[in-house]
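Cross-posted from the bioinformatics board.
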Amino acid sequence: MNAPVKFYQTGTFTVGNRLLAPEQRSVQASTERSNSLNSGHRACQGCGEALGARYAVDAAMRATGNRLIAANATGCLEVFSTPYPETSWQLPWIHSLFGNVAAVGTGIAAALKVKAAKAGLGQSAVRVLAQGGDGGTTDIGFGCLSGMFERNDDVLYICYDNEAYMNTGVQRSSATPYAARTATTMAVGAEPGAERGKGKNLPLIAMAHQIPYVATATVADLRDLEAKVEKAMTIHGARYLHILVPCPLGWGSASHDTIKLARLARETGIFPVFEAEHGEVTAVTKIRHRVPVDEYLRPQKRFAHLFGKEVAAQAPAAPAAQGGASVLARPGAGAGQGHPEMLARIQADADRNIRRFKLLDEPEVH
Amino acid sequence: MLKQIEGSRAVAEAVALCRPDVICAYPISPQTHIVEGLGELVKDGTLTPCEFINVESEFAAMSVAIGSSATGARTYTATASQGLLFMAEAVYNASGLGLPIVMTVANRAIGAPINIWNDHSDSMSQRDSGWIQLFAESNQEALDLHIQAFKLAEELSMPVMVCMDGFILTHAYERVDMPAQAEVDAFLPPYEPRQVLDPAEPVSIGAMVGPEAFMEVRYLAHAKQLSALEVIPRIAHEFQQRFGRRSGGLVRGYRCEDAETIVVALGSVIGTLKDTVDDMRERGVLIGVLGLQSFRPFPLAAVRAALQHAKRVVVLEKSFSVGLGGVVSTDVRLALSGLQLHGYTVVAGLGGRAITKASLERTLREAIADKLPSLTFMDLDWRIVNRQLEREAQVRRSGPIAENLLRDVGTVASKVS
């Protein structure tokens, strides 16, 4: 059986759209794309969430023949897209509250089901998307999300994860990674940034609900993201897509590095990209070019305290140290300046992800 | 059709006659029997098509209702007490969005201390939420108000809360006249939404609104509630024309015409008050009762018209604003602005404390003699109150209040009368 072919974007192992037959090109490459999150909104330069939402919603629109209703949690995406009356949304869209978007999605799906029944149809041709950020998903909206999963309601839920409450000024969420500086996990003290041993992994929790489809993706892999949205739309029941969306403002990264950081999150093993059906991992995106975690962390000011001032001021490190030994050795160059022990823990976490999700084709010896 | 059934069952059957598309249910006493009844009607195919959804909280119940109502579905849910508080954020959101959801509130006290019995603290806490609030005096009226509520909500595109006393009504078996489906269909047209999530005509609902238009959106909600002051009596009149009984409306007086003293109240206690008034009338006391069927919008003009010829007004309420006094009384006082009446607030029945005719007559006689304090807690057990006050004066770590009081009350802790 042929494995599905997925193409990668500029900066990695590129196969451009122009080399493909028109029907094989990405949704974003199509002049027919719906532009459901239209231009003119007020997202920051380099906003990963705006990019992720555009990719995902356009793909969902194509998959459903533009028969899609979206519910949106409170958060950046809702705020930057809708200051009254200039909505960017080109599809039926509702915002209710911060913590209830999954339940609003359930309500929309229920109404559509009854409408279909009244029209003598087996099921509704109109589909439902509920979307929110990591705060609205992993924290305040978690109860409603778990309820929607548990009932297997016919809703695709997308979490745009930028790892903190960016809309309110970069406060910690339960998706904030260890060591990250936020407004409520300050870069001070013996162990600066977010504390060790806290936070939750929503994709794994979603899998524990045994729902039909769970997937992760990043804004670095457009084709992969679109393919997962399209696949999700072929399935009925509760589906969960968790997209890593770098936030230049909250992460302290350059706005032109959004896609690069998303790619590095995957290539370090920090953010495993995979699919799961009914609680079972069915596919992973292998790491093509493994890099140590500090390559991902160093360009982000939220991790600057790990490196110390002198190290952080240096030119970017040479790429592509292969293998764990050199990875772990490198932070030692700034010993006494930063927090090499914290870096080592982050590296160990990434290595564990690589083992757990089998992200490398050949096991490496550490 | 006449039936001898539980109040909750009567409401469930009445709601089913309204052909709701989506029902969300989360259990809380004393609302449970209503949604259980509806769930059964959906599951056995009596009510179809209809989606009955067991949600994980009241917050989710109202949120599901928001999603389904915005997608053009006639939507119903029911709650009480803590449940209403837990969904409060979504309660305000539903009215802010102008979604005509109908919700039963089986009125129950709010904790702490936890208490499952009836008073009006729950719905009063949502007084300013933008929902229309109707109060039922009897099981028949509760049944009838639900049928009216869907018509009212959908005509105004505004959510309606039908408040009925927990246990006293919800769990009481009484004779009710259940309308026929064809009659309800003729009274209540299919839901035609003002706004709907529809791919054929995409709209954004719930967008961010800044200072340039927020006040206007709020004002329009107020204007709609004011217009409900005309719509509510009209719908009650239409209902009477079709079903042959008077239910709902804004206010309803009982023996008020020549009354020197009028008692204002909401809900099932009106029945007890009517009996008390009858007894007192027999002894020559000129007294009447004014029942409020609509609390929001508050019918200022109708209340004033009904009370202005009295000498004295006693507001009997099962709610209490800590640090002020009466909740309903404040609104009644506003209706009586400029009139020189003697006014009394009687807080009674909190947490299910029985309101007896004997206590009512004693209290009302004190009012008629103008010896009643302006704020009275009827049948308050001063003995245990004072003991606790002494305890707190003497000991720093005086312990949990409710537990101390129960210990003082002794073995009759569950006694309600």
